[in-house]
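Reminder to self: C-alpha coordinates first, then the designed residues, so the page reads top to bottom the way the pipeline ran.
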Protein backbone atom coordinates (compact mmCIF):
# COMPACT_ATOMS: atom_id res chain seq x y z
CA UNK A 1 0.00 0.00 0.00
CA UNK A 2 1.35 3.47 -0.83
CA UNK A 3 0.18 6.82 0.50
CA UNK A 4 2.04 10.07 -0.06
CA UNK A 5 1.23 11.05 3.53
CA UNK A 6 0.91 8.70 6.49
CA UNK A 7 0.04 10.09 9.92
CA UNK A 8 0.64 8.19 13.17
CA UNK A 9 -1.94 9.19 15.78
CA UNK A 10 -5.50 10.53 15.46
CA UNK A 11 -5.22 13.15 18.23
CA UNK A 12 -5.60 16.86 17.48
CA UNK A 13 -2.07 17.06 16.03
CA UNK A 14 -2.67 14.23 13.55
CA UNK A 15 -6.21 15.28 12.66
CA UNK A 16 -5.21 18.90 12.00
CA UNK A 17 -2.43 17.77 9.69
CA UNK A 18 -4.74 15.30 7.88
CA UNK A 19 -7.40 17.98 7.45
CA UNK A 20 -4.90 20.45 5.96
CA UNK A 21 -3.32 17.96 3.58
CA UNK A 22 -6.66 16.71 2.27
CA UNK A 23 -8.45 20.07 2.06
CA UNK A 24 -5.56 22.28 0.89
CA UNK A 25 -3.54 19.91 -1.27
CA UNK A 26 -6.27 17.45 -2.30
CA UNK A 27 -3.95 14.54 -1.43
CA UNK A 28 -4.91 11.18 0.07
CA UNK A 29 -3.84 10.64 3.70
CA UNK A 30 -3.75 7.55 5.88
CA UNK A 31 -4.03 7.95 9.67
CA UNK A 32 -2.89 4.97 11.74
CA UNK A 33 -4.22 5.04 15.31
CA UNK A 34 -3.60 2.42 17.97
CA UNK A 35 -6.69 3.21 20.04
CA UNK A 36 -10.21 2.23 19.01
CA UNK A 37 -11.27 5.83 18.36
CA UNK A 38 -10.12 9.17 16.97
CA UNK A 39 -9.50 12.33 19.04
CA UNK A 40 -6.61 11.11 21.19
CA UNK A 41 -6.97 12.60 24.66
CA UNK A 42 -9.86 14.90 23.72
CA UNK A 43 -12.15 11.98 22.87
CA UNK A 44 -15.58 12.17 24.51
CA UNK A 45 -18.50 9.74 24.50
CA UNK A 46 -21.87 9.14 26.12
CA UNK A 47 -22.11 7.20 29.37
CA UNK A 48 -25.66 6.52 30.48
CA UNK A 49 -26.80 9.40 28.25
CA UNK A 50 -24.29 11.89 29.67
CA UNK A 51 -21.42 13.26 27.59
CA UNK A 52 -18.18 12.50 29.43
CA UNK A 53 -14.59 13.20 28.44
CA UNK A 54 -12.91 9.79 28.66
CA UNK A 55 -9.43 11.25 29.26
CA UNK A 56 -10.29 14.01 31.70
CA UNK A 57 -11.69 17.55 31.51
CA UNK A 58 -10.72 19.54 28.43
CA UNK A 59 -11.62 23.21 28.16
CA UNK A 60 -10.63 25.02 25.01
CA UNK A 61 -8.89 28.35 25.60
CA UNK A 62 -6.48 30.34 23.48
CA UNK A 63 -4.93 33.70 22.74
CA UNK A 64 -4.50 32.61 19.12
CA UNK A 65 -7.38 33.90 17.00
CA UNK A 66 -6.00 31.86 14.10
CA UNK A 67 -6.48 28.61 16.07
CA UNK A 68 -9.96 29.60 17.28
CA UNK A 69 -11.01 30.50 13.72
CA UNK A 70 -9.55 27.27 12.40
CA UNK A 71 -11.52 25.09 14.85
CA UNK A 72 -14.66 27.18 14.40
CA UNK A 73 -14.93 25.71 10.89
CA UNK A 74 -15.68 22.36 12.52
CA UNK A 75 -17.76 23.24 15.57
CA UNK A 76 -20.00 25.82 17.16
CA UNK A 77 -19.09 26.80 20.69
CA UNK A 78 -20.78 26.76 24.08
CA UNK A 79 -19.74 29.94 25.82
CA UNK A 80 -18.05 28.62 28.98
CA UNK A 81 -15.60 30.22 31.41
CA UNK A 82 -13.96 27.55 33.53
CA UNK A 83 -13.93 27.89 37.33
CA UNK A 84 -12.08 25.62 39.76
CA UNK A 85 -12.40 25.35 43.53
CA UNK A 86 -9.83 23.72 45.76
CA UNK A 87 -10.83 21.79 48.90
CA UNK A 88 -8.52 22.96 51.71
CA UNK A 89 -8.99 22.86 55.50
CA UNK A 90 -12.65 21.90 55.00
CA UNK A 91 -13.32 24.91 52.76
CA UNK A 92 -13.74 25.38 49.02
CA UNK A 93 -11.47 28.19 47.82
CA UNK A 94 -11.12 29.64 44.31
CA UNK A 95 -8.11 28.48 42.31
CA UNK A 96 -5.96 30.23 40.93
CA UNK A 97 -5.07 32.43 43.90
CA UNK A 98 -7.00 35.71 43.95
CA UNK A 99 -8.38 38.01 46.66
CA UNK A 100 -11.32 35.66 47.28
CA UNK A 101 -8.99 32.67 47.82
CA UNK A 102 -7.23 34.36 50.73
CA UNK A 103 -10.45 35.76 52.17
CA UNK A 104 -12.12 32.34 52.32
CA UNK A 105 -8.98 30.44 53.31
CA UNK A 106 -7.97 32.72 56.18
CA UNK A 107 -11.33 34.37 57.02
CA UNK A 108 -10.04 37.80 55.94
CA UNK A 109 -11.63 40.77 54.24
CA UNK A 110 -8.83 41.85 51.92
CA UNK A 111 -9.13 44.18 48.96
CA UNK A 112 -6.54 44.66 46.22
CA UNK A 113 -4.30 46.95 48.26
CA UNK A 114 -4.44 44.93 51.48
CA UNK A 115 -3.86 41.68 49.56
CA UNK A 116 -0.69 43.21 48.12
CA UNK A 117 0.44 44.13 51.65
CA UNK A 118 -0.46 40.67 52.97
CA UNK A 119 1.48 38.92 50.21
CA UNK A 120 4.42 41.29 50.60
CA UNK A 121 4.76 40.09 54.19
CA UNK A 122 4.54 36.36 53.47
CA UNK A 123 6.33 35.89 50.15
CA UNK A 124 9.91 34.66 50.17
CA UNK A 125 12.93 36.36 48.67
CA UNK A 126 14.28 34.07 46.00
CA UNK A 127 16.87 35.54 43.69
CA UNK A 128 16.93 32.86 41.06
CA UNK A 129 13.72 30.95 40.39
CA UNK A 130 14.84 27.44 39.49
CA UNK A 131 11.87 25.21 40.27
CA UNK A 132 8.09 25.17 40.47
CA UNK A 133 8.39 25.37 44.24
CA UNK A 134 10.39 28.61 43.90
CA UNK A 135 7.65 30.10 41.71
CA UNK A 136 5.02 29.74 44.45
CA UNK A 137 7.27 30.70 47.37
CA UNK A 138 8.41 33.83 45.55
CA UNK A 139 4.87 34.85 44.61
CA UNK A 140 2.79 33.93 47.65
CA UNK A 141 4.97 32.32 50.35
CA UNK A 142 5.14 28.99 52.16
CA UNK A 143 1.76 28.66 53.87
CA UNK A 144 -0.18 29.05 50.64
CA UNK A 145 2.35 26.74 48.97
CA UNK A 146 1.80 24.09 51.64
CA UNK A 147 -1.98 24.32 51.56
CA UNK A 148 -2.67 24.54 47.82
CA UNK A 149 0.36 23.48 45.77
CA UNK A 150 2.76 21.20 47.61
CA UNK A 151 0.70 18.03 47.93
CA UNK A 152 -1.31 18.49 44.72
CA UNK A 153 1.95 18.68 42.80
CA UNK A 154 3.45 15.66 44.58
CA UNK A 155 0.33 13.66 43.77
CA UNK A 156 0.17 14.82 40.16
CA UNK A 157 3.84 14.26 39.36
CA UNK A 158 5.05 11.76 41.96
CA UNK A 159 7.83 14.16 42.95
CA UNK A 160 8.27 17.45 44.80
CA UNK A 161 7.66 20.78 43.06
CA UNK A 162 11.29 21.49 44.00
CA UNK A 163 12.32 18.98 41.29
CA UNK A 164 10.01 20.29 38.58
CA UNK A 165 10.77 22.92 35.99
CA UNK A 166 9.41 26.35 36.91
CA UNK A 167 7.18 26.30 33.80
CA UNK A 168 4.84 23.73 35.39
CA UNK A 169 3.37 25.89 38.16
CA UNK A 170 3.91 29.04 36.09
CA UNK A 171 0.90 27.82 34.10
CA UNK A 172 -1.19 29.09 37.04
CA UNK A 173 -1.46 32.88 37.49
CA UNK A 174 -1.42 34.76 40.83
CA UNK A 175 -4.02 37.52 40.85
CA UNK A 176 -4.64 40.57 42.99
CA UNK A 177 -8.26 40.94 41.89
CA UNK A 178 -11.59 39.09 42.06
CA UNK A 179 -11.20 37.19 38.77
CA UNK A 180 -12.00 33.59 39.74
CA UNK A 181 -11.81 32.18 36.20
CA UNK A 182 -9.21 29.47 35.59
CA UNK A 183 -8.15 30.92 32.24
CA UNK A 184 -7.83 34.51 31.03
CA UNK A 185 -7.56 33.85 27.30
CA UNK A 186 -9.84 35.89 25.02
CA UNK A 187 -11.21 32.78 23.29
CA UNK A 188 -12.68 30.14 25.61
CA UNK A 189 -15.40 27.56 25.28
CA UNK A 190 -16.51 24.00 24.76
CA UNK A 191 -17.38 22.46 21.37
CA UNK A 192 -21.18 22.57 21.36
CA UNK A 193 -21.66 18.90 20.45
CA UNK A 194 -18.44 17.69 22.04
CA UNK A 195 -14.86 17.07 20.93
CA UNK A 196 -15.47 13.78 19.13
CA UNK A 197 -18.09 15.40 16.87
CA UNK A 198 -15.65 18.26 16.19
CA UNK A 199 -12.89 15.77 15.35
CA UNK A 200 -15.20 13.78 13.06
CA UNK A 201 -16.05 16.97 11.24
CA UNK A 202 -12.33 17.80 10.81
CA UNK A 203 -11.72 14.60 8.87
CA UNK A 204 -15.04 14.42 7.03
CA UNK A 205 -13.24 14.16 3.69
CA UNK A 206 -13.15 11.13 1.39
CA UNK A 207 -9.39 11.61 0.95
CA UNK A 208 -8.75 10.87 4.64
CA UNK A 209 -8.54 7.19 5.60
CA UNK A 210 -8.33 6.01 9.21
CA UNK A 211 -6.95 2.69 10.41
CA UNK A 212 -7.94 2.23 14.08
CA UNK A 213 -6.72 -0.36 16.61
CA UNK A 214 -3.33 -0.45 14.89
CA UNK A 215 0.11 0.32 16.22
CA UNK A 216 2.03 1.78 13.27
CA UNK A 217 4.99 -0.52 13.94
CA UNK A 218 2.76 -3.50 13.16
CA UNK A 219 2.00 -2.20 9.66
CA UNK A 220 5.14 -0.19 8.98
CA UNK A 221 6.62 -2.63 6.52
CA UNK A 222 3.40 -2.84 4.43
CA UNK A 223 2.75 0.87 4.05
CA UNK A 224 4.99 3.07 1.93
CA UNK A 225 4.97 6.86 2.16
CA UNK A 226 6.81 9.97 1.05
CA UNK A 227 6.23 11.78 4.36
CA UNK A 228 5.41 10.37 7.77
CA UNK A 229 3.77 12.66 10.33
CA UNK A 230 4.44 11.18 13.75
CA UNK A 231 2.48 12.25 16.86
CA UNK A 232 3.25 9.34 19.24
CA UNK A 233 5.99 9.11 21.89
CA UNK A 234 9.44 9.94 20.52
CA UNK A 235 11.37 7.31 22.47
CA UNK A 236 9.15 4.57 21.03
CA UNK A 237 9.79 5.87 17.51
CA UNK A 238 13.54 5.44 18.03
CA UNK A 239 13.17 2.06 19.82
CA UNK A 240 14.33 3.65 23.10
CA UNK A 241 17.81 4.16 21.63
CA UNK A 242 18.77 6.64 24.37
CA UNK A 243 16.55 5.04 27.03
CA UNK A 244 12.96 5.74 27.99
CA UNK A 245 11.51 9.24 28.19
CA UNK A 246 9.26 9.46 31.21
CA UNK A 247 5.60 10.29 30.57
CA UNK A 248 3.16 10.83 33.47
CA UNK A 249 -0.19 9.13 33.02
CA UNK A 250 -3.57 9.20 34.71
CA UNK A 251 -6.17 6.59 35.56
CA UNK A 252 -9.63 7.99 34.89
CA UNK A 253 -12.48 6.63 37.01
CA UNK A 254 -15.99 7.79 36.13
CA UNK A 255 -19.23 7.32 38.06
CA UNK A 256 -22.88 8.07 37.45
CA UNK A 257 -24.84 9.49 40.39
CA UNK A 258 -28.62 9.71 40.63
CA UNK A 259 -28.67 13.36 41.64
CA UNK A 260 -29.07 16.51 39.64
CA UNK A 261 -25.85 18.21 40.72
CA UNK A 262 -22.77 16.71 42.42
CA UNK A 263 -20.65 19.79 43.15
CA UNK A 264 -20.66 23.59 42.88
CA UNK A 265 -18.41 23.94 39.84
CA UNK A 266 -17.05 21.83 36.98
CA UNK A 267 -13.80 20.90 38.71
CA UNK A 268 -12.85 20.63 42.39
CA UNK A 269 -9.20 20.01 43.26
CA UNK A 270 -8.19 17.94 46.29
CA UNK A 271 -4.59 18.90 47.11
CA UNK A 272 -4.42 17.35 50.57
CA UNK A 273 -7.13 14.67 50.70
CA UNK A 274 -7.71 11.48 48.67
CA UNK A 275 -5.45 9.72 46.16
CA UNK A 276 -7.06 11.46 43.20
CA UNK A 277 -6.16 15.04 42.27
CA UNK A 278 -9.56 16.35 41.22
CA UNK A 279 -13.21 15.58 40.54
CA UNK A 280 -14.86 16.78 37.35
CA UNK A 281 -18.62 16.99 36.90
CA UNK A 282 -19.16 16.97 33.15
CA UNK A 283 -22.64 18.52 32.95
CA UNK A 284 -21.14 21.70 34.44
CA UNK A 285 -18.67 21.89 31.55
CA UNK A 286 -20.90 20.83 28.69
CA UNK A 287 -24.14 22.45 29.85
CA UNK A 288 -25.99 19.23 29.05
CA UNK A 289 -29.35 19.10 30.81
CA UNK A 290 -30.16 15.67 32.25
CA UNK A 291 -32.45 15.73 35.28
CA UNK A 292 -31.64 13.67 38.39
CA UNK A 293 -28.49 12.14 36.96
CA UNK A 294 -24.90 13.35 36.68
CA UNK A 295 -21.49 11.99 35.68
CA UNK A 296 -18.27 12.64 37.56
CA UNK A 297 -14.64 11.60 37.06
CA UNK A 298 -11.69 11.19 39.40
CA UNK A 299 -8.08 11.33 38.14
CA UNK A 300 -5.42 9.10 39.74
CA UNK A 301 -1.88 9.96 38.60
CA UNK A 302 0.70 7.24 37.93
CA UNK A 303 3.08 5.92 35.27
CA UNK A 304 1.23 2.85 34.01
CA UNK A 305 -1.57 4.07 31.74
CA UNK A 306 -1.63 5.96 28.41
CA UNK A 307 1.10 8.65 28.36
CA UNK A 308 -0.47 12.04 29.10
CA UNK A 309 2.28 14.45 30.13
CA UNK A 310 5.97 14.87 29.26
CA UNK A 311 7.95 14.79 32.50
CA UNK A 312 9.29 18.31 33.17
CA UNK A 313 12.56 17.61 35.00
CA UNK A 314 16.11 18.44 33.97
CA UNK A 315 16.97 14.76 33.50
CA UNK A 316 14.22 14.13 30.96
CA UNK A 317 14.54 17.41 29.07
CA UNK A 318 18.21 16.50 28.55
CA UNK A 319 17.33 13.02 27.39
CA UNK A 320 14.78 14.48 25.00
CA UNK A 321 17.49 16.73 23.54
CA UNK A 322 19.39 13.60 22.52
CA UNK A 323 16.35 12.40 20.60
CA UNK A 324 15.79 15.90 19.24
CA UNK A 325 19.14 15.79 17.47
CA UNK A 326 17.96 12.73 15.56
CA UNK A 327 14.52 14.24 14.91
CA UNK A 328 16.08 17.35 13.38
CA UNK A 329 18.00 15.23 10.88
CA UNK A 330 14.93 13.37 9.55
CA UNK A 331 14.05 14.36 5.99
CA UNK A 332 10.75 12.59 5.59
CA UNK A 333 9.37 12.55 9.15
CA UNK A 334 7.57 15.46 10.82
CA UNK A 335 7.10 15.29 14.60
CA UNK A 336 4.13 17.13 16.13
CA UNK A 337 2.18 17.16 19.37
CA UNK A 338 2.48 16.70 23.11
CA UNK A 339 4.09 13.26 22.99
CA UNK A 340 6.35 13.67 19.96
CA UNK A 341 7.61 17.18 20.75
CA UNK A 342 7.72 16.29 24.49
CA UNK A 343 6.08 19.62 25.36
CA UNK A 344 3.40 20.42 27.96
CA UNK A 345 1.19 21.77 25.16
CA UNK A 346 -2.43 22.74 25.57
CA UNK A 347 -4.76 21.89 22.69
CA UNK A 348 -4.41 25.27 21.01
CA UNK A 349 -0.62 25.06 20.79
CA UNK A 350 -0.78 21.54 19.39
CA UNK A 351 -3.05 22.82 16.64
CA UNK A 352 -0.86 25.88 16.09
CA UNK A 353 2.19 23.65 15.79
CA UNK A 354 0.40 21.46 13.23
CA UNK A 355 -0.83 24.45 11.21
CA UNK A 356 2.66 26.00 11.22
CA UNK A 357 4.39 22.76 10.26
CA UNK A 358 1.90 22.16 7.47
CA UNK A 359 2.97 25.47 5.99
CA UNK A 360 6.71 25.17 6.52
CA UNK A 361 7.33 21.44 6.10
CA UNK A 362 4.62 20.37 3.65
CA UNK A 363 3.58 23.35 1.57
CA UNK A 364 7.14 24.68 1.76
CA UNK A 365 6.14 28.32 2.44
P1 LIG B 1 -2.75 12.85 21.78
O1 LIG B 1 -4.12 13.36 22.02
O2 LIG B 1 -2.09 12.09 22.87
O3 LIG B 1 -2.78 11.98 20.45
C1 LIG B 1 -1.73 11.11 20.08
C2 LIG B 1 -2.37 9.89 19.45
O4 LIG B 1 -1.34 9.04 18.93
C3 LIG B 1 -3.16 9.07 20.47
O5 LIG B 1 -4.47 8.88 20.01
C4 LIG B 1 -2.38 7.76 20.55
O6 LIG B 1 -3.19 6.64 20.78
C5 LIG B 1 -1.72 7.71 19.17
N1 LIG B 1 -0.52 6.88 19.15
C6 LIG B 1 0.52 6.93 20.01
N2 LIG B 1 1.44 5.98 19.66
C7 LIG B 1 0.96 5.34 18.58
C8 LIG B 1 1.45 4.27 17.78
N3 LIG B 1 2.59 3.65 18.07
N4 LIG B 1 0.71 3.85 16.72
C9 LIG B 1 -0.49 4.45 16.44
N5 LIG B 1 -1.00 5.47 17.17
C10 LIG B 1 -0.29 5.91 18.22
N6 LIG B 1 -5.52 21.11 26.83
C11 LIG B 1 -6.26 22.24 26.82
O7 LIG B 1 -6.08 23.08 25.92
N7 LIG B 1 -7.25 22.47 27.75
C12 LIG B 1 -7.51 21.58 28.74
O8 LIG B 1 -8.40 21.82 29.58
C13 LIG B 1 -6.73 20.38 28.80
N8 LIG B 1 -6.97 19.47 29.76
C14 LIG B 1 -6.24 18.31 29.77
C15 LIG B 1 -6.54 17.37 30.75
C16 LIG B 1 -5.84 16.17 30.78
C17 LIG B 1 -6.17 15.16 31.84
C18 LIG B 1 -4.81 15.92 29.82
C19 LIG B 1 -4.04 14.64 29.86
C20 LIG B 1 -4.52 16.85 28.85
C21 LIG B 1 -5.24 18.06 28.80
N9 LIG B 1 -5.00 19.01 27.81
C22 LIG B 1 -5.74 20.18 27.79
C23 LIG B 1 -3.96 18.80 26.77
C24 LIG B 1 -4.53 18.13 25.51
O9 LIG B 1 -5.05 16.87 25.84
C25 LIG B 1 -3.39 17.97 24.50
O10 LIG B 1 -2.77 19.20 24.23
C26 LIG B 1 -3.83 17.39 23.15
O11 LIG B 1 -4.88 16.48 23.26
C27 LIG B 1 -2.63 16.71 22.54
O12 LIG B 1 -2.93 16.26 21.23
P2 LIG B 1 -1.87 15.33 20.49
O13 LIG B 1 -2.45 15.00 19.17
O14 LIG B 1 -0.54 15.95 20.55
O15 LIG B 1 -1.75 14.03 21.42
N1 LIG C 1 -1.29 22.84 40.70
C1 LIG C 1 -1.32 22.78 42.10
N2 LIG C 1 -2.53 22.91 42.72
C2 LIG C 1 -3.69 23.08 42.04
C3 LIG C 1 -3.65 23.14 40.64
C4 LIG C 1 -2.42 23.01 40.00
O1 LIG C 1 -0.30 22.58 42.73
O2 LIG C 1 -4.76 23.19 42.68
C5 LIG C 1 0.03 22.70 40.03
C6 LIG C 1 0.33 21.24 39.66
O3 LIG C 1 1.71 21.02 39.78
C7 LIG C 1 -0.10 21.19 38.20
C8 LIG C 1 0.35 22.57 37.73
O4 LIG C 1 0.06 23.44 38.84
O5 LIG C 1 0.54 20.15 37.51
C9 LIG C 1 -0.34 23.07 36.49
O6 LIG C 1 -1.75 23.03 36.70
P1 LIG C 1 -2.73 22.95 35.45
O7 LIG C 1 -4.13 23.07 35.96
O8 LIG C 1 -2.30 23.92 34.41
O9 LIG C 1 -2.47 21.47 34.95
P2 LIG C 1 -3.28 20.59 33.87
O10 LIG C 1 -4.27 19.82 34.67
O11 LIG C 1 -3.89 21.54 32.89
O12 LIG C 1 -2.23 19.74 33.26
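Designed residues (365 positions):
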Amino acid sequence: MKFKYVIVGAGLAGLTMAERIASQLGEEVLIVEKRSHIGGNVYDSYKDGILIQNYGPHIFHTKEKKVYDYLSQFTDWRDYQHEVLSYVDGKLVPMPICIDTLNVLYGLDLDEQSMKEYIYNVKEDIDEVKSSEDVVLKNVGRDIYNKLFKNYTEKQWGTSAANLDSSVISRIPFRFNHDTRYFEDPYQGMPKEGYTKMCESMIDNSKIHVLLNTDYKDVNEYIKFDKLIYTGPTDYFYDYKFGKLLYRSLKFVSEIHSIDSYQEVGVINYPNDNDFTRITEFKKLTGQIVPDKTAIMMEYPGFDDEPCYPYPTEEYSQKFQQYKQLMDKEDNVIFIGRLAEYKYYNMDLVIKSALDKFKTHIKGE
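The two ends are 29 Å apart (CA to CA).
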